[in-house]
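Think of the structure tokens as a kind of shorthand, similar to the way a musician reads notation: each symbol stands for something richer, in this case the local conformation of the backbone. In the example below we present two proteins back to back. Begin with the first one, reading the sequence and then the tokens, and try to describe in your own words what changes along the chain.
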Amino acid sequence: MILKDKSFAFGDPYSTSSFLVPMHQLHEAGINPENYFRKTIIIPKQDSIIFSVLNRTVDAGAVASFIFKEQEPELKDKFRVIYRSRNFPLGPFVVNTEVGQDVIDKTRHFLLNLDKTEEGRLALNEADLDPFAEVKKSDYDWLRHIAEKTTPAVLTDNKYFHLKCVRKQ
């Protein structure tokens, strides 16, 4: 009940870590964000969510652990993490087939074998990543299920205030 009647920032409605999973877990806990929070807003860029909390534009927000971890220690010390979801895989790497099969094969080979070298293991460790693995479409069924239950209602619900950052031309 720590955030009851507070303001809360979610990320982009198609973001697993800053929208879909937090929204799903709130619903699973019996919390309807519309009634629980005083105000909810959507801020597409997760770094902006962090700074919105820091600047007290909102009281709290949802961001990916790896984005929070990459912040400076002095900044992280100003926050209290009140909940962590279970671990889940990052989004897939996708590539335009026009780059050619050779580039695709080399990239796949590089990523799948990154954990086989000391330098690769250090890079994975520094990024707080498990080794890469081939995936099947079915590996994302849990996420599809969450997205189908969560996203359509939110995207058509005008009660959510959307902030969009646009770069000046």
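Once you have a description of the first chain, move to the second and do the same.
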Amino acid sequence: MKKRRLAAVVLCAAMVASMTGCNVKTKSDVTSTAAPAADQGPTEADPNAGVEIGEVNLKLLYQSSDESVANVIRDELSKAGINVEMSAASDGATFREQEGNGNFDIAFSSWANPVGTPDYGCRGIWESIGDSNLTGINDPKLDELVKARFVEMFGEPVTNPMGWPVHRLSEYIIFLTSGSRGWSKYFTDAGEIFITIKNVKDCKINLNDVQYVTPPQNAEAKRTKVQEGDLLISITADLGRTGVVSKEIAKCGGYINQHLTCIRLQKEILHPLYIAYYMESEAGKRQFHRKNQAGVKAGLNFDSIKSLTIALPPIEVQNSFVSYVSQIDRQMLTIRQGLDILKMLQKSMMQDYFESRGDGK
């Protein structure tokens, strides 16, 4: 199937051209520039000149419940001369399976945005271990940017130079539990999500390598089922890894194993993402280290979790941090998309050139 990469370029260009000013040509544009009129005089060399685009085909993956939106995407791409193969997944589990196998060129899915966390969608896609980072982006500089913003807005958590009041986490916990043991008998290839310690790190939940389960219908399952906005913290082995449950995970159904604790907070006072960043800062890491000193084996109990202390800015300031992160991430996303478009276009054109040379053209 020829020119699939270039088709992706055309699609991305259509999405971000208005924001980036990137002047990437469509199929018709390139075709018209490939053969200038005879009466035209010498013009500046066009890097697209002489490139034959050929038939462009894309496979669009979507859930059947999103068919109306998928039809709009198909119609708009068709206007650009792109043939779209519609691939409808009957349910969320089937969609995730096809998505995980890479059985698509473009995919339409929900935009996760847990509990007033507008930055989550951008972080999930563009950070190195984002749970929606299906393209494999890995840029430590982008990861560090978010942490730098936290210190800029709240000060260094260890010294608390802004003088935020310090409280025990227990004052704002409305629900606290740990996960289940012995769930291997419920493992399946598709179904609901079983979150383990490997999935929780850097204030997010990474679903790139996730285990699915068919949960039992009992009190244990009800107790360990997560809700949107729950804060997860690792309590054994690598202590203090954090993640916040997204709307998408909660909708699909998610359960935790025994190495994680689930904390439900008073969200009108504490933003779970702020607490996640605080706990993964040096101030949080030092607390986890101290509380683990008495034990031979790494581990935290509920009393240890409840006794954790936090600097508590007003919720408006916490929300401002989240909004600021979202704004910057959108700008970074636009810049990165523009760069990716240029790189993909260059690669596709080079491929076209060498293919034509190989055919003796």
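Compare your description with these statements about the second chain. The longest helix spans residues 315-358.
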